[in-house]
Amino acid sequence: MSTTVRWGIIGAGNIARKFAAGIRHAVGAELLGVGSRAREKAEAFGEELSIPRRYGSYEDLAADGDVDAVYVATPHPMHKACAVLCLSAGKAVLCEKPLTTNAAEAREVVDAARRAGVFCMEGMWTRFLPAIVRMRELLAEGAVGEVRMITADFGFHTEWNPEGRLLNPHLAGGGLLDVGVYPISLASMLFGTPRRVTGLAHLGATGVDEQAGIILAYDGGRIAVIATAIRTTTPQDAWILGTEGRIRLHAPWWSSTKITLHRRGEEEKIELPLVGNGYNYEVEEVGRCLAEGLIESPTMPLDESISIMETTDRLRAQWGLKYPME
Ligand SMILES: NC(=O)c1ccc[n+]([C@@H]2O[C@H](COP(=O)([O-])OP(=O)(O)OC[C@H]3O[C@@H](n4cnc5c(N)ncnc54)[C@H](OP(=O)(O)O)[C@@H]3O)[C@@H](O)[C@H]2O)c1
Asked: Among the CATH numbers 3.30.360.10, 3.40.50.720, 3.40.50.1100, 1.10.1420.10, which is that of 130-273+308-319?
């Protein structure tokens, strides 16, 4: 593999467009191709975003020997098949969050990656942003003492469109898998796998969770309190609460450029601007891992992605939310 990672995108949709803009700011990455279910769509997307190679199927992209890594940007229920297709073809995979729709599918993807000995990572891009990196450094230095509690929310208002990805059960719609996965992942990063999982959700007219309150409890009494919504905008803040202080990740916390450290009655504001739109950092993480010969990222390990899907499975079981394809 050359030192520049040559990327392909699967699924010419909403997030793929942002990723294609972000990757331009990543060091050591080149956007080579885009694959769509429809040739004309791939052509139009490639034209708009100056992507040289365009494929009329995902299989054609996976078969291109010049592509090193593939970014899977399809709705959640298609992640597994797209990821396995690319891993089987020997392509490194960066798969959009959540890794899959449920833990059983996540295990299939992880098995495929490990069997092939090929790199795979869930695209939890937030973890690689300067604000989160700095927050972790502060926590490691003991800046807030022992972390005891996290409060985080991710809710936004989407217009009513029962066919669209967010509300459509056939596309694994609902707030939990779309946005709830961010605060769950934040809590997982700091606290590990929860011992107890509970929550209440409002399942709307299409049967998916439109909003929910979630509590995750960990060993030693640590707790994460989470709100998630796709029809209601929440403050979009996250707080990391310790025995000797607290850190605020300012809204929108998953792409925050500002944190405030509160301790000993004082406030320290730290500005951490993004280079690019933020999606470039996860691209660089993949490049770093590939250069080091790693098949998973130490910052977003595959077993952790499975554990996060187990948490969302447990919540959905409580809510009676099963998707038609499950
Ligand atoms: N990291 C982030 O900030 C972020 C933000 C938004 C979404 N996401 C994640 O990215 C994924 C895609 O979200 P999105 O908003 O980009 O979705 P989207 O625009 O609705 O769909 C993405 C693309 O998936 C392909 N696709 C394949 N099978 C499909 C099917 N049965 N129905 C509809 N589309 C299908 C289509 O591409 P072709 O027609 O070209 O094949 C479509 O354009 C989700 O898993 C979501 O969680 C991440």
From this structure: 3.30.360.10
